[in-house]
Amino acid sequence: MHRAYKFLLRPTARQAQALAEMLRDHCSLYNGALQERRDAYRHVSKTSIKYGQQSAQLKGIRAFDPERQGRWSFSSQQATLRRLDKAFAAFFRRVKAGEKPGYPRFRGVNWFDTVDFPKDGDGCRWDSTPHDPVTRLRLQGVGHVRVHQHRPVKGRVKTVSVKSEGEGKQWYVILACDEVSAEPLPATGAVTGIDMGLAHFLTTSQGAHIANPRHGKRNADDLAEAQRALKVFPRRKRENRSAKHRRAVEKVAGLHRKVRRQRTDQAHKTALALVRTYDVIAHELLSIANMLRAPKPKPDPEQSGSFLPNGAAAKAGLNKSIHDAGWGVFLGILAHKAESAGRVVIPVDPRNTSRTCPACGHVSGENRTTQEKFECTQCGHTANADQVGALNVAIRAGLALPDVA
User: Fold this and answer.
1) In whole angstroms, what is the distance from residue 110 CA to residue 167 CA?
2) What is the residue-wise DSSP string for 234-262?
3) Is the pLDDT of residue 36 over 90?
């Protein structure tokens, strides 16, 4: 199985400067390659340039500019060009599918924060010797950077990525490893279905509720205050910002990082508790992208150019709550932990799970009388609405549960 590890780097002042220069030069390479593709299509009879053609030019680019491009790993520069090629492949795929295309854009320094090394030992070297208490990462053009390795790395290191956060104030290394052995947990004999929600983060078919921490909402006031302080400053390029402007930008970014880490931490802890308790876990196969779509406008037939209310404001609030819950992050972490622990995760069709009576199978929107109460209009079965959803998920997954009638 595959696993990724993320460790904090502790570069010296000179190494931090070299890392920033490496990021800047890779960003410049990405933008230059994008400009070449745009110019070729616009001015040379709609000619499309592929990755292979741009990769073949790297040798000449490195020889022409040895100070900025020649000092970095050739493989990492190829990875940057592949990154652009993937962006164009995704663009053409969306065009063919009739979706919003989203043409690849030029990247500023704040939007280009990662340099990839496709192979450990080619331009980089993960140096973690058992007898050396200090772990180091060797990077071409930077040197041996100290790593805060807080847990052992298992498996074979396949790719290495260097990532910047906080406008270059924090640097991380991300190791993608394969051949990682699973560590099965002892069987418990318990199975469950889970229902994702907003009133509760999730509810199990046994009736246990996990509270929704609402990290974004709890930090909303601090974030709003930081954003108001940032609006005082006029929009300027990064190099022209004052010290106060930079501090204001960093405060907003820091609050966003805080919420993201809180949400991820909560997802890890909740998923680990489920994996340790149950052998089989069933959940709804949620299409979160569809759930977050804005409602279509309703033209007013009586007045040209006017529109009728379509509930967009209420839907925006719901979308914000769904984002804050972080269902997608949690389900991804749950699948990974279950695979590592030898557990089984079963996704099921989510349609009508909250409207179906688990006792008699009657389906009706009137069964759910309130947000919390479920009462079947046919057999009279009453229960907590979220638990009913979890029970239906477990039933669709074919799990053996106690009689709910």
Assistant:
1) 7
2) PP--GGG--HHHHHHHHHHHHHHHHHHHH
3) yes
